[in-house]
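Handout, section B. The chain below has 178 residues.
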Amino acid sequence: MGKISRDTPLAEITLRRYEKPTMNDRDLVRKFCLSLGLLQPGDSRDVVVDVLQVLLHAKQRREELHSEEVKNLVMDHRKEKQLPMLGVASSNIRRQLKRLKDLHLIETNANLYRISEWNNVTEIFEEKIHNFLLQSVISRVKDYVEKIDQEFSVVKEEEEEESTGNQKNLFETPVKED
């Protein structure tokens, strides 16, 4: 049986560049989530913003939170900001926590969530995203670029004449002779 190719990425990151941050509070966290691809532009389901913001506030108190606590705090936060209760189901909160964990922004310890090692987001971004994830993705993309250059390089005229000899050019349009 032949090898089945998988298009499942080993690592994935989306980065977007926005204007310099001049906003604060929820809008600031929202732009950060948009910048990291955690949120799509124009997406109304932005509960990941509230999940991250709740965990950032918990970091200030050095508090670890269970997913249900995160859910309850997110609901309180959305109610306070008069936002619709979209995406606040427990299963979706756990999904958003996993997405944040996959980017190494948060970690778990005995089913309790916190900002990774209580670090500043700057340190987490530098260590985990910039130096580790981004570099490994860029390195692999470079491997593909080099392989493409090898595969599709321009053949020198002499080598082309020698190698093609009497072979047909597959890209040449055949001419009908009457």
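Note. The helical segments are 25-35, 47-60, 67-80, 90-102, 121-151, 157-164. Compare this with the example in section A.
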